[in-house]
Amino acid sequence: MFKRTILIILDACGVGELPDAGAYGDTGAATIPNVAEALGGLIMPHAQALGLGNIVPIKGINPVHNPRAAFGKMQERSPGKDSTSGHWEIAGLVLKKPFPVYPHGFPDTLISEFEQRASVKIIGNIPASGTEIIEKLGPRHLKTGEIILYTSADSVFQLAAHEEIISVEKLYEICRIARKLLSGEHAVGRVIARPFTGRPGSFTRTTNRHDFSLEPPGDTVLNFLMRKNIATVGIGKIPDLFADCGISCKVKAINNNEVMFKVIDEMKSLEYGLIFANLVDFDMLWGHRNDTTSFGAGLEQFDRQLPELLDNLKNDDLLIITADHGCDPTLKYSTDHTREYVPLLAFHKNIRRGRNLGIRSTFADIAATLAENFAIEYTCLGTSFLKDLRD
């Protein structure tokens, strides 16, 4: 039905706690609604017209009669609240077990083996905010060259090093060693390189972050698309989250604005296939730092970019906007991801207004929709909503 699908992930932009949020310590989480409430309302007229305010109550974004897009929200079926599991489920792969987490740091035996394999010494090895642990341990790192290791409530093994002490490429090499080691019972979702610069009191993380995800343990809809010679363009951190599996073209973009620019640029050249993009700043810069003001400003900036995106849609294009989890910056007791419903907006130029897609039981409904649209033989736990877009 659609020659191209543009799939945009507003990283960490959840819309309300899931029924099991309490088990994850996320009672009361509602990223976009809570940000709106804290700021006295959000100004997002274009997202409002699409139906964002019809999904859940959001201060400043009122529901509209007959919104332009089909709207709904989705529940994650996989356990956990990680970017990797969220994106994998969007692509059709639902996990049965959560990735391991390390609320007390990684075991000494694992650290010893890593230090031996990578020829490094580790400091830290605790759950921590990235900016805080760099400020705390950065001076020691500058003196000794020991690498800063930290984790969080998410399944991550994060290695931070000053670019003048350990080069970016060397840090990537060390992370690849960690990625090979972290398998089996210690198969964390992501090993993340966190380069930084500056001096004590003014350290700054750079844009040279790189995520080394596990390879998906099975095929996603992306693999099937690529085998049918259907283009799968991954923009931003999408290729990293899938360990490049099922991605036919990688497009680097380091922030929200660059991602949006690259999406529109690809729309001007790609004739057939999937454009899959992630807007990382909501998660990396604002959610994890409890920066509610910047989070709200980022949402409003995305809204200002929507008209150009919509103007570049062809009659046979489908636009899907969603998220992978929450990261509610208003919850001052935590800087971690939050277990939430995610918004779902689906739009094409001939869609009947006011279509309510309801509450979807899994993110994999998007994969099922892509499979049906491109007529590929891929089955997953999801249910396609393609017919709801064309009736």
Q: What's the overall average pLDDT, rounded? A: 96
Contiguous uncertain segments of 5+ residues = none
Which class do the helix and strand fractions yield? alpha/beta
Span between termini: 12 Å
- Characterize the largest beta sheet: strand count, sense, and whether it forms a barrel: 9 strands, mixed
The amount of beta strand, in percent, is 15-25%
The backbone outline, from C-alpha atoms, is: globular
Secondary structure tally, helices: 14
Residue share in helix: 25-40%
Number of strands: 15
**Element order: H for helix, E for strand:** EEHHHEHHEHEEHEEEHEHEHEHHEEEHH
Radius of gyration: 20 Å
Describe the structure.
The chain is of the alpha/beta class and 391 residues long. The protein is built from 14 helices and 15 strands. Strands 1, 2, 3, 10, 11, 12, 13, 14 and 15 form a nine-stranded mixed sheet that branches. The longest helix has 20 residues. It is globular and about 65 Å long. The two termini are 12 Å apart. The model has no long low-confidence stretch (mean pLDDT 96).
What's the layout of helices and strands?
Layout (H helix, E strand, L loop, with lengths): L3 E7 L5 E2 L13 H8 L6 H6 L1 H4 L14 E5 L8 H8 L17 H11 L3 E6 L2 H15 L2 E5 L4 E7 L5 H14 L8 E8 L6 E2 L4 E4 L7 H7 L3 E5 L2 H4 L7 E3 L4 H12 L5 E7 L1 H7 L4 H20 L5 E6 L17 E8 L8 E5 L4 H9 L12 H5 L1
Parallel strand pairs: 1-12, 1-13, 3-15, 4-5, 6-7, 10-11, 10-12
Antiparallel strand pairs: 2-14, 3-14, 5-6, 7-8, 7-9, 13-14
Helix pairs in contact: 1-12, 5-7, 10-12, 11-12
